[in-house]
């Protein structure tokens, strides 16, 4: 019995605590029955040698435990198609941004092959690093989703074998027009949020402008001309103080959209989560409006760049008003989304997954 107990304990060490006790009891009972049956067939009492033979026939502890755990995935078949779709989108966006960044960097090293070669090598290294970072983050997110979907969509019987829930035709009632997820909108929002995360966190230097290309025209020398071109950042440090908060909202939006793509329909929980994200976005944008200027350029900077104080002043007014207008549009847009989500939530209050009845 000491061998049996040790064996059962070793099997249990590989099992989740939730089902360990029941499975250990089952295995112990099976082994005792096997020993009793073999003892009757051979006409010999149970001894250590017979116990060892039975344990060997039953199998290694880790293999026996694996039969109770079922198949386990980091990213399983259910999420794999969406994972590949998101991965392709991320690769395309990251590649496009890397090409844009490389083009800007090469324009500043025009006429200097050595610097251009070093810039290209550095761009390739940065691109590889960005891809590995993005891939790691995506795999982590989908692994978490796989775990969450398994917990929500699988059921565990007495033996601990994971089973898919039996399909219920009533689930079709969940997919009504007001609740159906629009694939194009979800994918576009995922691309937009991911691009925003990459640009504002890894390539903020591309958000700006070149004041003049007069050096190229005046000198007639492309190398000298591009060497005189300066790149002026457009956004101030105040703006970048808000980037971590916006990044969190964008990341949560991506996760929400991936979940919605997997589910195919809106639920009360996902609508409440969306409303919460929109409220947070409005708070962030309102703080931007109430705080210092988000623009790094000044009237004097523009005057130096274009050589006309009156034109610079007009451009500065227009730029300031444009930024404020964009922020107000963002608040209004998020407010409309909140109203729409709240309306859908209210109209589906009695039947949260079905369309309202027609009278």
Rg over alpha carbons: 31 Å
Q: What is the number of strand segments?
A: 4
Widest sheet: strand order?
1-2
How many strands, which pairing sense, and closed or not: the largest β-sheet?
2 strands, antiparallel
- Give the number of domains: 3
Query: Order of SSEs, N→C?
Result: HHHHHHEEHEHHEHHHHH
SS field, number of helical segments: 14
Cα-to-Cα separation, first versus last residue? 71 Å
Oligomeric description of these chains: single chain
Name the structural class. Answer: mainly alpha
Mean pLDDT: 76
What coarse outline follows from CA principal-axis ratios? elongated
Low-confidence blocks of residues:
153-164, 166-176, 212-229, 349-359
Question: What fraction of residues sit in β-strands?
Answer: under 5%
Helix content: over 70%
Explain this structure to me?
The chain has 359 residues and is mainly alpha-helical. The protein folds into three domains: 2-69, no CATH class; 76-166; 168-359, no CATH class. The chain is 71% helix and 3% strand. The protein has 14 helices and four strands. The strands form two sheets. It has a two-stranded antiparallel ribbon with strand order 1-2. A hairpin with a 5-residue loop joins strand 1 and strand 2 (162-164). Helix 5 crosses helix 7 (183-202) and helix 11 (243-263) packs antiparallel against helix 12. The longest helix is centred in the middle third of the chain and has 41 residues, at 113-153. The termini are far apart. 13% of the residues are buried. The model is unreliable at 153-164, 166-176, 212-229 and 349-359 (pLDDT under 50).
